[in-house]
Amino acid sequence: QLKRKKMINLVLFGKPGAGKGTQANFLKEKYSLKHISTGDVFRFNIKNETELGKLAKTYIDNGELVPDEVTINMLKAEVEKNLDAAGFIFDGFPRTTAQAKALDELMQYEGMQVDATIALEADDEVLIQRLLERGKVSGRSDDQDEEKIRNRFTEYNEKTAPLTEYYKKQNKFHSINGVGTIEDITERLSKVIDSLVAVNTMKDK
Ligand code: AP5
In terms of one coarse class, where is the protein primarily found (predicted)? Predict the structure, then answer.
């Protein structure tokens, strides 16, 4: 129980292409956290042609959100597999109010909480360029054309952006400039995380 108290659980928030996955890869090493990317789990399942993959594929290909029930069950299973972690970085989850509520319930049930949600901010045009570039190299089905990318932004604006208010009400919302070098952005994120760790340490004393 003592270990769980000292855990730090973060939500990395932001539009498609904001740099959530890129930054999570650095932060997970730096703070020894378990990185859970719902997009990566879906893509792994699509590649391996699992039932979950088959369910998710059409939505992802069209730049639409996978239904909440499917996504929430998958996320719960990922968290429960990793309860020995020192904390979590959630990347791409939650994306709807129902998902945010489910995450709060799950965290509470497991004796944890979301400590902070940190948004990476960048203009749409910057993000579209990043994603079109990646589409050329990675072949990600949802990065292939601008129309699909814009559809992901529409989904974000309609369903995900309202979570800003959800976390602001809980005093857990932080946002940083997501434009600059990858190192600079890691530095900006680290400042926010270090201040959270300091507060958590003081509370434990
Ligand atoms: P997901 O995989 O989460 O995709 P996304 O949100 O669209 O995010 P991306 O991976 O495109 O962007 P990112 O912010 O991680 O940026 P990245 O670091 O990769 O979701 C895919 C789909 O799965 C969804 O559309 C949905 O269908 C489904 N899904 C997933 N979660 C779901 C959920 N919770 N509910 C329902 N459905 C869900 O960077 C992007 C690019 O930019 C890279 O090429 C990177 O190298 C580059 N880059 C990063 N940082 C910089 C920088 N500072 N400067 C220049 N380039 C940079």
Answer: cytoplasm
CATH class in words for 2-184: alpha beta
With the most atoms of ligand 1 within 8 angstroms of its CB, the residue from 11, 13, 20 to mutate is 20
Q: Is 110 annotated as a binding residue?
A: no
Nearest to 15 by CA among 99, 89, 124, 101: 124
What six digits make up the tokens of 175? Answer: 């946002």
- pLDDT profile of the chain (205 residues), mean per 10: 65 98 97 97 97 96 96 98 95 98 97 96 97 91 92 97 98 98 98 89 73
**Per-residue model confidence (pLDDT) at position 6:** 60
pTM attached to this predicted model: 0.95
Q: How many CA atoms within 13 Å lie on the side-chain side of 197?
A: 12
CA of 128 to the centre of ligand 1 (A): 11
3 CA to centre of ligand 1 in angstroms: 31
Q: Where are the domains of the chain?
A: 2-184
E strand residue ranges, 50-170: 88-91, 116-121
CA 183, 29, 39, 166 dihedral sign is negative
